[in-house]
Amino acid sequence: MRVKRLAAAAFRVVAVMEGEGCPTEEFLASIQGKLCASRDGLLEMLQFVAERGLAAMPHAWSHEVNKQESILEFIKGDLRLFYFRGKNGDIAVCSGGVVKKGRKADKSAVAKAIAHRNSYMEAVKNGTCQLIQDEDDETQQGA
Description:
alpha+beta; 3 helices; 8-stranded mixed β-sheet; disordered C terminus
């Protein structure tokens, strides 16, 4: 499995890769119109978490959507960015996002986050998780 750095400071926020694409980056790039301010807020939240950690984050910024599988979501306006706590320096591993349309979390997005979490944990366990720093940076094995 490969993960891509989204923000890094004292902590590292990464996102899973699917082939050559990054669902989290694709989701954030697809946001238009009135939701742009919420997207920008999500990006600021990711940087805050990278600088100060999840423990310093205000409670209202995050919500647990699947306790059994430890899947959480960052919340900004109508936008939800799914994540789980990572290993090896990855404080939050983002797996994609949705525009909230109802009271409950998007079941297919949560199922996808669970699948990504399982793949990530297995890759960390096997030492096959690779960190992609930036488009121009080289990939690091055993992220």
